[in-house]
Design a protein that fits this description.
With 185 residues, the protein is an alpha+beta fold. Helix content is 23%, strand content 22%.
Length: 185
């Protein structure tokens, strides 16, 4: 049985949102990739306690990173989305159900699938009882941001952009290999 530690996932995101962990490949466009968002969020989930899942790079149930390459479910937004949708480690949820350490993805109207992954790293106004509006902030790579308010993200997107929210299960069971000895913090 695996345990997801939301505080560790968020702590990792806070440490690496504006930098790159040298223990993992860098898929930023300035390093020849198309973006580093799913790679970053995968690293956060690993830091939170998710164990890697063995398989080939193309296997839709594998989720891993090695020194020079990763599974496509680890580093490609399209495949990461498909992996999260099918994983027993997650469940889809509504935006108002998101908690620290959960994942949000977005799909612009001209994209055939979600193309950006973000981790929830800050929430204010936890209830409307006190009159404070709930505000979610996310951290991510590609256009590196730390605690970027969701309302700002939405203000830069088309009104037709789709948002997908994933609740990360606090406990999970699956077949996995041990987490590699990498520098997480």
């Amino acid at each position: 049985m695996g345990l997801y530690n939301r505080a560790d996932a968020v702590r990792y995101a806070m440490r690496w949102a504006l930098a790159r962990n040298p223990s993992f490949p860098n898929y930023s466009s300035n390093h020849g990739g198309g973006g580093d968002c799913s790679n970053f969020v995968s690293q956060c989930l690993l830091a939170g306690g998710w164990a890697m899942l063995e398989g080939t790079r193309e296997n839709s149930t594998a989720w891993f990173a090695e020194e020079t390459y990763t599974s496509r479910t680890w580093s490609s937004a399209q495949w990461f989305y498909e992996f999260l949708n099918a994983s027993p480690r997650t469940s889809r949820c509504d935006e108002d159900e998101l908690a620290l350490g959960d994942v949000m993805m977005l799909q612009p109207p001209d994209a055939p699938h979600p193309d950006h992954a973000m981790l929830v790293t800050h929430i204010t106004g936890l209830s409307t009882f006190d009159g404070e509006e709930r505000q979610i902030s996310l951290s991510y790579h590609s256009t590196d941001k730390l605690n970027n308010p969701l309302r700002e993200i939405k203000s830069r997107q088309s009104s037709k952009t789709k948002y997908f929210c994933f609740k990360i299960n606090d406990t999970f069971s699956d077949y996995s290999k041990q987490t590699p000895d990498v520098m997480l913090f």
